[in-house]
């Protein structure tokens, strides 16, 4: 081969070397343009993304705008980790937000209670009066609620219950109905004050047909999954809220799991976490949606929550609570990055809007009533709290409008509704944080494990079946 031919061949190779990266770059740019356009048209609430100040960038598995919301996944993860989660963790530990009023012993209105709890930890123990601090026994709680923790008689702080806090410790709140929830707050004689910090949401061993029947009834009778061609946004919202709540509950079970009962060893059950949530992208997306939905309810109620009385008689702690509430409501990062997490004004606008709203209200009330059928006391506690929190968010967003419009109601919330709302937001915040921080590693680990055990497909399935728990 002559020198001229060799030079010509080298030149051709150089042209090809530069052409392929150029072609690849063009393909990437076209893909980005198409995906950005797809993200800008995603959802049924926001068609004009100029109203959003959120980025469409993302570095993880979930990228772009959270469906039907106005924040992207990366923004939510950053806001949650840096601002919202630390604030919420501090808030739910304050005396005002850690005591929840609940009727623990309830008759199921739908079927006989046949639930069985395998673990002691599914119960909420009642401490004898001689173990309560003296201020709790006074008819007028002058000293206020203590900021330290109570210890149950068996040394199991996760099971303690407080039944002796006087209502006078919580002043300035009204009794008001919520059209979205089944009310059981009228029978005060059977109500208990529970310290949520001493009764964490975790695995309880609640298993069997009773546990499965709760979720089956919720989904099949009150919240059926919408078809791919569903055009009614309101029906989509209800399903996604329940699915998101369900996914969050499952995250907390997997995140605080009894790994070895004989040694009382607790830890993270990554197999359960993967099987219940992480291998189902729609469940993760619904959890982010529910988080933003509840966050929007909190921000919409800013004027009310800022002026509310967080009075427990413990002046220092009450001032701290008020400060944390204001930091949450007026976070500059939140107002800049995600000022409107969800746009509720787009719903109930059709001709049949009022009738559809009543139908979905009835369905959600049935869901809240189903919490009385949960056969595990601690599961019933967290089920009631979180469903009431979600019902409070629905009340704020859909039952109270702008006060300058004729016929709109002024927002009124019970103390218990505010406590449930903030604790629910914290639970969702914790779940989103776990997905963001642990999700990628857990998925890689489990996918490798599944690949290695592909010759024995029943093994992993049996492990997950044994790990089934409702709460």
UniProtKB/TrEMBL annotation:
Membrane protein topology class: Peripheral membrane protein
Pfam family, one: ERO1
Alphabetically ordered keywords of this record: Disulfide bond, Electron transport, Endoplasmic reticulum, FAD, Flavoprotein, Glycoprotein, Membrane, Oxidoreductase, Redox-active center, Signal, Transport
Annotated binding of FAD, by residue: 202, 204, 215, 243, 246, 276
InterPro entries attached to this UniProt entry: Ero1, ERO1-like_sf
Parts forming coiled coils: none
Active site (UniProt): 376, 379
Any one GO cellular component localisation term in the record: endoplasmic reticulum membrane
Subcellular location(s) per record: Endoplasmic reticulum membrane
Gene Ontology biological-process annotations: protein folding in endoplasmic reticulum
Main location: endoplasmic reticulum
The organism's place on the tree of life at top rank: Eukaryota
Disulfide bonding pattern of the chain: 117-122, 376-379
Cofactor: FAD
GO molecular function, one term: FAD binding
Family label: Belongs to the EROs family.
Protein name according to UniProt: Endoplasmic reticulum oxidoreductin-1 isoform X2
Organism: Raphanus sativus (Radish)
Gene name per UniProt: LOC130500264
């Amino acid at each position: 081969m002559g020198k001229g031919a060799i030079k010509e061949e080298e030149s051709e190779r150089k042209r090809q070397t530069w052409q392929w990266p150029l072609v690849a770059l063009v393909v990437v740019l076209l893909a980005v343009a198409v995906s950005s356009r797809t993200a800008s048209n995603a959802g049924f609430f926001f068609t004009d993304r100029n109203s959003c100040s959120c980025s469409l960038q993302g570095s993880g598995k979930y990228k772009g705008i959270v469906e039907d919301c106005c924040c992207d996944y990366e923004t939510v993860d950053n806001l949650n980790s840096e601002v919202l989660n630390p604030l919420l963790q501090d808030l739910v530990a304050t005396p005002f937000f850690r005591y929840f009023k609940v009727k623990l012993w309830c008759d199921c209105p739908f079927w006989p209670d046949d639930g069985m709890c395998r673990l002691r930890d599914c119960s909420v123990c009642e401490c004898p009066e001689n173990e309560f601090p003296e201020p709790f026994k006074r008819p007028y709680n002058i000293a206020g609620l203590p900021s330290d923790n109570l210890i149950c008689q068996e040394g199991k702080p996760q099971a303690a219950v407080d039944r002796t806090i006087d209502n006078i410790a919580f002043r300035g709140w009204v009794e008001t109905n919520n059209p979205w929830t089944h009310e059981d707050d009228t029978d005060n004689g059977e109500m208990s004050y529970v310290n949520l910090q001493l009764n964490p949401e975790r695995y309880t061993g609640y298993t069997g047909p009773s546990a499965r029947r709760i979720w089956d009834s919720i989904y099949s009778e009150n919240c059926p999954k919408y078809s791919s061609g569903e055009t009614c946004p309101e029906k989509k919202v209800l399903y996604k809220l329940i699915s998101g709540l369900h996914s969050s509950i499952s995250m907390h079970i997997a995140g605080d799991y009894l790994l070895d009962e004989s040694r009382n060893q607790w830890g993270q059950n990554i197999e359960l976490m993967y099987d219940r949530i992480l291998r189902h992208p729609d469940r993760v997306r619904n959890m982010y949606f529910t988080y933003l939905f509840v966050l929007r309810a909190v921000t919409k109620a800013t004027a009310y929550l800022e002026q509310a009385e967080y009075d427990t008689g413990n002046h220092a702690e009450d001032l701290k609570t008020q400060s944390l509430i204001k930091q949450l409501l007026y976070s500059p990062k939140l107002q800049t990055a995600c000022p409107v997490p969800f746009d509720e004004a787009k719903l109930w606008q059709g001709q049949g809007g009022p009738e559809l709203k009543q139908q979905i209200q009835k369905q959600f009330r049935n869901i809240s009533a189903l919490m009385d059928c949960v056969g595990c006391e601690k599961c019933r506690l967290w089920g009631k709290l979180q469903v009431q929190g979600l019902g409070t968010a629905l009340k704020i967003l859909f039952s109270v409008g702008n006060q300058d419009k004729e016929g709109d109601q002024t927002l009124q919330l019970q103390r218990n509704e505010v406590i449930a709302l903030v604790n629910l937001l914290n639970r969702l915040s914790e779940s989103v944080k776990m997905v963001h921080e642990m999700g990628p590693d857990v998925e890689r680990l489990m996918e490798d494990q599944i690949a290695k055990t592909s010759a024995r497909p029943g093994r992993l399935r049996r492990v997950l079946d044994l790990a089934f728990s409702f709460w």
